[in-house]
Amino acid sequence: MLQPKKTKYTKYQKNRYKGFSNKCNVLKFGDYGIKAINKKYKYLTSAQIEAARVAATRFMRKEGKLYINIFPDKPITKKPQEVRMGKGKGNVVGWVVPIRPGRILFEIKNISKDIAKEALRLCASKLPIKTKFIIKIKKYEEI
Questions:
Q1: Between the N and C ends of the chain, which has fewer C-beta atoms within 10 Å?
Q2: DSSP state of 53
Q3: What does the DSSP assignment read for 10-22?
Q4: What CATH number is given for 32-80+89-135 in this structure?
Q5: In this structure, are residues 20 and 89 in contact, taking their beta carbons and an 8 Å threshold?
Q6: Residue 58: what are its φ and ψ, rounded to 5°?
Q7: Alpha-carbon span 27 to 103, nearest angstrom
Q8: Confidence class of residue 98 from pLDDT cuts 50, 70 and 90?
Q9: CA distances from 139 to 30, 111, 113 (A)
Q10: Helix locations, 9-87, DSSP H
């Protein structure tokens, strides 16, 4: 599973992520991608990202290149069951990444449009958010 090798603090506070994504909202590496279009921010766990990656790479069969633009670097804590209130913050149980609407999650290049669309559809089916298939617009095409 994906998780950072080292962090400054083991436990973080929850933040409130409002609005649209400011970074990574345009295709940079690939020709095709999927973009989050959920209404509010949501969390993606490292297991969900890994399941989406495996689904896409199995369908592509060593063709093309898959880029993952998200990394789970925020720890999620949870207290054990049947524990009374107070007594500090719980233990870290997993790593997540907050996803705002408009964020590009996965990109693919060096592959045909039909294969890329199906691979990214399989990838999006493993995620708990609504996504949209997008294509890179080439401004200057040689004739």
A1: C
A2: H
A3: S--------S---
A4: 3.90.1170.10
A5: no
A6: -65, -40
A7: 10
A8: very high
A9: 15, 20, 18
A10: 46-60
